[in-house]
């Protein structure tokens, strides 16, 4: 059997701790190519760079692992990998992460990690976005590595119909504290923001975006938000057709 | 009846030609507040700014119109409007655009215009993203203004169940050439990129992202891509739940 090839990317940057953990997961399954942002790209969603040139840098190359840093967004990294660096190779899976902080619920839309995973799934292979619900600089990635391996392994070994993109979130804590894996749907909810207002040394006001997630369905037990809050790894399969089919019916004739 | 309040934003910047056209549409219906990016934010998707402070600038204020430029992304602009500037007011509709270039098919995911529209729909009012399928600097916005008015007017006057977010794309050409409005679903497809490689004056290679849209279902006649290509204004209602419900069933038991 030919050796598998895993593309790894993230939104925290090529030299983040979560990237180290993601490479650990990916190397279990074959050869690894990392194409990841030079700098942090958190909250970059599925953004692409249209009006700036992008620099690519080979960071290191060793047996079974090549690491590139790219000056663009997470999605730019995926495009650079598939459409340029790995153009003549077959990629078996895209792993994006491990993100510092969860991407459950509506965060899937803002997340650069998930933007890259969705983009990866456009290229005819399964994609997994993997996030750890812990923002601490010294976060413990052990459970995320363990469950990341289990989920990536299941996708690679047992196969799945394509397109397949998974939004995987691992709760904070030691592996022994995790209660298992739950397949979920995306929790409805939104962010209400507070803008912190300050003044710069020249007296100009500036703002920091900061907010609080409002759970739109706190009672629901089949959502990623519930699973994470109750100690489970949440797995939400995501797809890229945003059509609101219910509204499509309701609006029939409205604009004629 | 109290005067209506329309929030206008875009991804091309507060002083773009498309913004002028959007304000023309919005002023038909009431008081207008513009909160739009200082500079072009095309391709910014639903990105938010997490690690930089943001500057807000009042550009001008006249009877029925206030214009603010904000140094963040389109989504940052929407958040700034709802959670800060207009915190104590009721916004009746968010209009995002008019974008230079279409946002049909998968482009809805990369588009800053649609990112802002989707964000707007989280705040309990209808949102319309309006784009013109013409990238030319001297593009003719007349048809987009005309159909924008018709669609915004229908939403405001006839009402619609919330959440409601519309992805509206207007074909290139004079109003008389438009064949009507079609409610559609999002066309499947993806971009295959070509990276143009050049060298900077210091000999370092750099890349420009450039690509071509691959229509994943060229035969389908119920999609936005088909409507636009055949001279119709396409209207796709979009929503923010990315859950892939078919995969949710298929994957049952896979990760236990």
What keywords describe this structure?
metal-binding (chains A, B), metal ion binding (chains A, B), 256 residues, 9-stranded mixed β-sheet, homodimer, globular, alpha/beta, two-stranded antiparallel sheet, Stationary-phase Survival Protein Sure Homolog, Chain: A, EC 3.1.3.5 (chains A, B), nucleotide-binding (chains A, B), 5'-nucleotidase activity (chains A, B)
- The oligomeric status of these chains comes to homodimer
List the chains of the largest interface with their residue counts: A-B, 81 and 81 residues
Mean pLDDT of chain A: 96
Overall, the morphology of chain A is globular
For the record, the CATH class of chain A is Alpha Beta
The percent of residues in helical segments of chain A reads 25-40%
Q: Please report the distance between the alpha carbons of the first and last residues of chain A.
A: 58 Å
Q: Supply the CATH superfamily name of chain A.
A: Survival protein SurE-like phosphatase/nucleotidase
E-strand count of chain A = 11
Radius of gyration of chain A: 19 Å
For the sheet with most strands of chain A, the description reads: 9 strands, mixed
Output the structural class of chain A: alpha/beta
Task: Identify the strand order in the major beta sheet of chain A.
Answer: 3-4-2-1-5-6-7-11-8
CATH architecture annotation of chain A: 3-Layer(aba) Sandwich
From the 3D structure, determine the CATH topology of chain A: Stationary-phase Survival Protein Sure Homolog, Chain: A
Q: Provide the low-confidence segments of chain A as ranges.
A: none
Percent of sequence in beta strands of chain A = 25-35%
User: What is the domain total for the residues of chain A?
Assistant: 1
Write the element-wise H/E pattern of chain A from the N-terminal end onward: EHEEEHEHHEHEEEEHEH
**Number of helical segments with 4 or more residues of chain A:** 7
Binding site for a divalent metal cation (chains A, B): 11-12, 42, 99
Organism (chains A, B): Alistipes dispar
GO molecular function, one term (chains A, B): nucleotide binding
Domain Survival protein SurE-like phosphatase/nucleotidase (chains A, B): 6-192
């Amino acid at each position: 059997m030919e050796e598998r090839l895993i593309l790894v990317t993230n939104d925290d940057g090529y030299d983040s701790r979560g990237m180290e953990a993601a490479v650990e997961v990916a190397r279990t399954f074959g050869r690894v190519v990392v194409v990841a942002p030079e700098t942090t790209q958190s909250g970059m969603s599925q953004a692409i760079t249209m009006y700036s040139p992008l620099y690519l840098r080979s960071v290191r190359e060793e047996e079974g692992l090549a690491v590139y840093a790219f000056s663009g967004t997470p999605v730019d990294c995926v495009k650079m990998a598939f459409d340029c660096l790995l153009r003549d190779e077959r990629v078996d899976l895209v792993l994006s992460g491990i993100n510092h902080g969860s991407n459950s619920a509506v965060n899937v839309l803002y997340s650069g990690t998930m933007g890259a995973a969705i983009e990866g799934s456009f290229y005819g292979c399964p994609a997994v976005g993997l996030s750890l619900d812990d923002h601490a600089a010294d976060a413990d990635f052990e459970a995320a590595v363990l469950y990341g391996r289990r989920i990536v392994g299941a996708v690679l070994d047992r196969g799945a119909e394509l397109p397949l993109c998974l939004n995987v979130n691992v709760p904070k804590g030691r592996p022994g504290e995790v209660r298992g894996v739950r397949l979920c749907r995306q929790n409805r909810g939104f962010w209400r923001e507070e803008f912190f207002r300050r003044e710069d040394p020249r007296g100009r006001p500036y703002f920091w975006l900061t907010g609080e997630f409002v759970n739109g369905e706190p009672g629901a037990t089949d959502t990623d938000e519930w699973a994470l809050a109750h100690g489970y790894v949440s797995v939400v399969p995501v797809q890229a057709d945003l059509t609101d089919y219910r509204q499509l019916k309701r609006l029939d004739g409205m604009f004629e």
